[in-house]
Amino acid sequence: MASSSVMRRVSLRNLRAHKLRLFLTVFSIVLGTSFVAGSIVFTSTVSKAFNDIFDSAAPGVAVQITPDSNQSPGVPLSVMDDLNAQKQQLGIDRIVADYSGSVTIANSEGKALQTGGAPSVGTAYLPPDEALSPDTSKILPGGRGPTNAGEVAINTSAAEDAGLEVGSRTQLVVGQGSAAPREVTVVGLLDLPGSTGGYVNVQFDEATARTLFSDGEHAATLDMSAVQGVTPEQLQERVAATLPPDTYDVRTGDQVRQDQKDQVNEFLTIFTTILLAFAAIGLIVGTFIIYNTFSMIVAQRNRELALLRAVGASRPQVSRSVLFEAFVVGVIGGAVGLAIGIGLAALLQAFTAASGLPEAPLQIGVPAVAAALFVGVVVTMVSAWVPAVRAARVPPVEAMRAGMAEGSAPLRTRTLIGLIVGVIALAAIIIGAMGEGVGPAVAVGAGAAGAIAAVILAGPALSRPVVGALGTVIGAPFGRIGRLARTNATRNPRRTAATAFALTLGLMLVAVIGTLGTSFKGTIDDAVDTGMTAEFIVVGSNQMPIPEAVADVVADVDGVGTSLSFGMIQATVDGQGVFGYGAVGGQPADVAVLDMRDGASDQLPADGMFVSERTSQERGWNRGDVVTFTGPTGEEVPVTVAGVYADNEALQPWMVGPEVYDRLVPASAQMSAMIFVAPAAGVSPDELRTNLEDATASYLTVQIQDRTEFKSAVSSQIDQMLATLYAMLGLALLIAVLGIVNTLALSVVERKREIGMLRAVGMLRSQVRRSIYLESVLIAIFGALLGVILGTVIGVALVRTLAKWGLGAPVLPWDLILITLIASAVVGVLAALWPAVRAARTRPLEAIAEA
Known about the structure:
The protein is an alpha+beta fold. It has four domains: 1-58 and 256-409, no CATH class; 59-255, no CATH class; 463-535 and 706-851, no CATH class; 545-700, Cathepsin D, subunit A, domain 1 (Beta Barrel). It contains 25 helices and 24 strands. The strands form four sheets. Strands 14, 15, 16, 17, 18, 19, 20, 21, 22, 23 and 24 form an eleven-stranded mixed beta sheet that branches. A six-stranded mixed barrel has the order 4-5-10-7-9-8. Strand 20 and strand 21 (636-645) form a beta hairpin. Helix 2 runs antiparallel to helix 11, helix 21 (707-750) packs parallel to helix 24 and helix 23 (765-801) runs antiparallel to helix 24 (814-840). The radius of gyration is 34 Å and the shape is globular. It is found in: Cell membrane.
């Protein structure tokens, strides 16, 4: 016990004596643990905020009836009449029909109010004496509820975003079959619970809402309250008994609210998983830095540890002393990481609150605290375990020799294992790249994991020839200083490989994501350039569909030769949901490349369908087959396959003629995904564009794009997604840079006597700094090369496996690769700035005397 206490005091004294080394090690742990803790606190807080909102959702609703199928047009109003006739027997107090649909309202400048992806819906206004709860629609003082077709009420947050107030006149477009924009006057502002995050709710009088959002025979839902003495569960059971089985979903108000919570929590779970995945990447990189740090600490303390062994300390005591230091550092890093994570969560909440998302007190629970401390301690202990064992095995006499250095063990065994693992990993990647679908993608993923393991094992042996070659080229202009930097970079291959691996992992992921992103954009570009002959594409703003009425307006524009609207179809075939398009207003062959592989004609029959080659193979739909679709009304529509065309991403996956489209999609639900437009003979593109813009100016949701603009719009969406991923990967790269700083700083301490001797024989401070810069650049470029090569190979293989879902040939991100390699050299210089200055300040006599 006494000796253990002595060893602990020695460990604590060692930590206090090396504050800089302690700070760098703790900081690498903090980066990973703070991201984990911040993710848990933030998502728990957001979940709490949404749950609080949904606790107040559906006020007054005891039971709600919805269609059992999402393809249904709604609940027939006849059901409401039947229930009204049985109100007393069933225990119903009130029944309210809900009419709702998507709308777009103009702001004070006459432009569409952007929601940032949040819903923008129109509903029916119910006065307090008709609503299930008096607080359902609370009109703020100074306003009133709408009473005719020209009046609306709008939620206060949307009104503020739009610059609208009571008395404002504006326009709105109803997204489901609106004939034309409507002129409306805002007569009331609504105080709605949960009205956040860009959400827009425009309320009409009930008669208008019924006309706009239903076919006159159905409602989206039926909500009802119970008379006093009847519980929601009792009312649910009674109402369900009066309805046909397997036709409607009857839920209590609590079930409705819980379902809404579950949907949000499902999204939050995915969001949390993504955040934690990137946090895990940061921790993996941090683990190598911590491992590197403790390896160097042990190497620098060989004499100290050997002396302890010589005076009676046992091997277990030596290894436990190193692990005890790791435990202390892990606890400190975890605690600091938790505090910073809470701060990060607070910043994220402030940002999201400014964007309109709901707020709640920060949820600092046991999971966040446990995760930060557990991850910080465990990662650090695991990272320090190998150096601790190695320290205990060093014989005292050998360790006290001046020439003893860490990492002198042979690399043959681990290199051989690494090569075997690498060959197996490469085989898995190649086999996966030869197939398409989930299985091959999993094979590529397994191969990627094996490749990472191979780099870890064989990296030290690989570093010597690669870094040596790089040093010969890059160091040549610097003469002896270049040769010294190359020697220092290859002196300890284990350390060099472990330091470079931080960059390797981060840049490998960057290369994978970059390859996927450029391939996606290349697929879109190819589809537009080779698969589309239309001059213009009419699309909706915010990736929203556009009213079917716009197709009629576009078709009548002067200068239009052909226009083809792609109406959206959701139906079922053999009980499975399918999605396709209705070609309305023209022929696909007039606006796109339609290469028929099996068909007598490229003219789509009004009562037939064309399918792509890929869809034909996947579903077995061949020419002459009859495919029976079931629409949202339950009507079965048999359609004959008139032909199979070569895969064209602009026309995927199948399309039917206008007669089929009208039978499958009710008029009130018909919407266009996009409209292809080709000019008439003799009409210039500029003239046609002007005519199209003038004709659709009043439609708030409509945009006119040429093919270049269309490609750019899609590419910008991909770029936004990639920017988010790159920003999150920045954490791993930041840790990698800190790892290089850490390694070089400790290396300077380790080589203090050597640097002092070089200074004593005439090396200038500037030459010392230059040698450290070059050493850092060599390590950084080595890591970058491995990462880029691995990431590119894995990215290309993944792209090939995704061909089943329409992704085209792999496109390498050459600009990203070049920028990455140049940036790595810059990172190497930046990471070496502080260690190089410290090295240059080494005083020769003091350094030699310390030996």
